[in-house]
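[job 0412] stage=fold_complex status=start
inputs:
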Amino acid sequence: MAKSGLSVLVLCAAVVLGAAAAADENTPEIKMASGRFEPAQLRVRANIPFKLRVTNTDQVAVEFESFELHRERVVQPGETITVYLPALAPGHYAIFDDFHRGSTAEAAIVAE
Amino acid sequence: MTWARHRGRAALILVGGLLMGAQLIRSARINPPVESDLVAPVEIKRILRDACYDCHSNETEWPWYSRIAPASWWAHSEVLEGRRRLNFSQWDAYASDPDTIAHKLQQVAALVRTAAMAPWPYRLLHARARLTSAQRESLIRWATQEIPPRAPHPD
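[job 0412] stage=fold_complex status=done
writing structure:
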C-alpha cells in the first residue's frame, strides 16, 4: 500500500517537473542593449504559441519591435518583460530596437 | 543673353525629360485584404477613416497624385511605413499581446494630442484629415479608454 502511494507521488512529481520543463522550453529569452540582441537569431518551435522574455541589460530604454510579428514594447533599463506571441508559421521574423534604429544589428526570431 | 536663354531652355528640357522618365518607375497601389478591422464607435470610426485609414489600413483611397512620380513614390512609401507601424486592418494581430495594444493606443492619443498625426503635408492635401479640436478630443478620449489595464495575460 505504502509502495503504491510512493509510486503515485513519484509519478505526480515527474508530471509536475515535466510540465515545468516544457513551460521553460516554451519561454525563450532574449537580451537587448542599444540595438543589439543576444542571441541575434532566436530559434523557437513553429506552430506553438509562446511567451518571450525580453530583458533590457542597458542603461537606457529600448523598444522591442517587429513589424511582422505586430509587436511593439518599451523596455526600461534592467526590466524584463513578457511578450505573448501566437503560433508562428515556420519562417524568419525580423526584430529591431526602434529606439536605436541606426545602430540596430540584424536580428530575428526563427520559427522552425 | 542668348547663351543664358539657351541654358534656361536646356534646363527645362532636362527637367521635363527627367519627369517624363520618372513616370516609367511606377509604384504598385495595392490594398491587401482586410484581416480584422478595428471595432470602434461609429463617430470614432468615421474620424479614423477620414484622417488615418489611408496610411494605417488596407483600405487606402489612393489619391490622384499617387499616379504621378515623384509624388507617387512619396505616397507609396508613406502608406507602406504607415501600415507597418499601425494597421487598423490587422487589429487582432496586436490583440494577443495586451501591452502592445496598450502601447499602440497610447501612441495614437499622444500623436493626435500633439497634432503630429495626421502629418501636415497630408492635412494640406486632404481637407477631411484636418480634425477639429472636438474630434481630436474624442479620439484621444477613445484611445485612452480603450487601453487595457495592466493585468496578467490569460495563459
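[job 0412] summary: The two ends of chain A are 47 Å apart (CA to CA).
[job 0412] exit 0
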